[in-house]
Amino acid sequence: MIQSEFRYAHHPEDVKKYTTEELRREFLIDDLFNEDKVKLVYSMYDRLIVGGIMPFSKALKLETIDDLKATHFLDRRELGIINIGGKGKITIDGEIYELGNKEALYVGKGSKDIIFEKVGHEQPYFYMNSAPAHHAYPTKKITKNEAEIVELGETKYANKRIINKLIVNSVLETCQLQMGMTELQVGSVWNTMPAHTHSRRMEAYFYFDLEEGQTVSHFMGEPHETRHIFMKNNQAVLSPEWSIHSGVGTSHYTFIWGMAGENMDYGDMDGIKTNELK
């Protein structure tokens, strides 16, 4: 079963006026994982689709949705998947790929039959991003050993973290989709601080590995007009091109970042000094 919804883009002047409820309704994505369901959110921000797939008692097929006006989901799209649960498998047009915890799969444009399943008694949780594509690049599995890994931050600033670049142009070719995973170390809670913006690509953040009863405050908005959204484990948030995207947790956590847009250069961004945020 597929559940899908559609989200519009927003002008920053409008977002300044949003209440907490309105902000959460427009940008927060919760309830991503439900037994034997595919949940998809189609965003007008670079037409990124954010989704969660949880095959529990049966295999689940990624079918097209009305908003795509396409015969198959990937007729004009590419797809990135990261498994945050137990071992699972994904069958792409008859070829099987097994994904363990924190392993990724890139699926190229034109793939037709995409099926998600459990392996044994383990429960996989497949988090996915999809963006429009102009070219068919090969499907490829990426493990953490194949990722480009960068260690950033300092203990004294509570932001020591490991960035795993999984689906990026330094690891494999894609049209525009970029995905990776940032793991905060024990005792560190801040991500993407100092903050930045990048007007030629949007992002979606998915927070997980958060202890029961803890929370992450995700910061967004223009640098001089920030807003925050308190988030629970296994929730995602959309980040417009004009917005910062940063967070702080009441304990350490992991998050997946996904990007779409014309800018493929990971380091091309406009930094904001921490003491200049408002």
Automatic annotation (TrEMBL):
The reaction(s) this protein catalyses: 5-dehydro-4-deoxy-D-glucuronate = 3-deoxy-D-glycero-2,5-hexodiulosonate
Pathway: Glycan metabolism; pectin degradation; 2-dehydro-3-deoxy-D-gluconate from pectin: step 4/5
One Gene Ontology term from the biological process aspect of the record: D-glucuronate catabolic process
InterPro entries referenced in this protein's UniProt entry, alphabetically: KduI (IPR007045), KduI/IolB_isomerase (IPR021120), KduI_N (IPR027449), RmlC-like_jellyroll (IPR014710), RmlC_Cupin_sf (IPR011051)
Cofactor list: Zn(2+)
Pfam families reported for this sequence: KduI
GO molecular function: 4-deoxy-L-threo-5-hexosulose-uronate ketol-isomerase activity; zinc ion binding
Keywords: Isomerase, Metal-binding, Zinc
Enzyme Commission number(s) from the entry: 5.3.1.17
Family: Belongs to the KduI family.
Name under which the protein is recorded: 4-deoxy-L-threo-5-hexosulose-uronate ketol-isomerase
Natural source organism: Chryseobacterium potabilaquae
